[in-house]
Amino acid sequence: MNNGDINAMWPKSIPYVIPLEVEKKLVNEKFKVIYIGHMSILIQTKNFNILIDPVLSNRIGLFNLFGIKRIIKPGIYFEQLPSIDFILLSNNRYDTMDLNLLKKIVRRDNSIILGGMNIRRYLFKSNFPVVYPLNWFNSINFENISFYFLPTVSNSHRYFIDKNVYLPGSFFIHDFHTNSSIFYSGHSAYSKHIQQIKSYISTVTKKDYIDFSILPMGIYKPRALYSHFHMSPKEAVISHFDLNSKMSLGVGTDVFCLGGEKYKEATTELLHTLNSYEKEKKKKLISLLYNQDKVLPFNIRKSNLCN
Q1: Which candidate among 4, 12, 97, 258 keeps its CA 20 to 30 Å from the CA of 57?
Q2: In terms of C-beta density within 10 A (0-12 exposed, 13-18 middle, 19 or more buried), how is residue 21 classed?
C-alpha cells in the first residue's frame, strides 16, 4: 500500500462558492439536475422536487460536531431549497444521511422519505412520519413518477455496532408521462450489477438508453481497501458506457476528504480516462470541479449543459 494513497493532500477550505438560486417550480425542461456537493443532488421535475442523500453540514459525524470537515460549502443552503416532495436515502452513512437536516426539511415540507430496509432504526416516526423502507427491486408510484430501489455493491454503517444493518441501494427514477429516466448509483463498487441494472431499466422504459446517470467517483484510494465498495473514475466511465447513458455526472469527490486520493485527483483521472477513449466512443460525462453554480437542465429533444 502506497503511503501517498493514505495521506491525501487537501486544502483546508475553499471559501469562494456562491450559493445557487433555485427555481421553486420547473417550467420548460423535462427535468433539471442540480449538484449540491458530494453525494447531494436536487432533481426537479414538473410536478416534484426530489432531494437525494442531502448533507449540508460543515462536518459529517456524530451530531455534526465531530468527524470530517467539509472543504467547500454546499451549492445550496437550506433556506434556498424549494419545498421538497421526496427524499431518497441510498445509505445510512454520515456523508449521505444528515439527520439534523432531514428533521428540518420534513418539519418544513412534510416530505416523503424512501430508503433501504431497516431505515426506521434511524428515522423514528415521531420526527419522520412518512417513510417507506424498500428492498431491492421494490418500486413505489406517486402520480406520474415511479421510484425503484435497485442493488448496489457497497456496505452500510453509521455506528460501531450496525455494520450492514441498513440495506444500501441505488435509485431509478422514471417519469412515465415523459418517459424520462434518471439513475443514481449511490456509493458503489463497479461490478456486473451495472449491466444488470441497465437491462432492468430497459424493460421498464422500453428504451436502450438512460437519459441521465449520477455515478460516484470518489473515496477510491487505496484500491486495496476501497475497491470492494467504491468505484474509481475509470470505472465510473465504464459504468457510463455500460448504462448507455446519454449524459452522466460524476459525484462524491472534492468535498469531504474521506479517501486517500488528493484533492481534484479524481477529476484529473476522469479527464485522462476520457481522453484515452477513441473519439467516436465518447459520450457526455461531466465532472463538476467544485460546488460552483452548476445547473444541468435536460430536455429529451435538446440537451443543454450549463457548465
Answers
A1: 4
A2: exposed
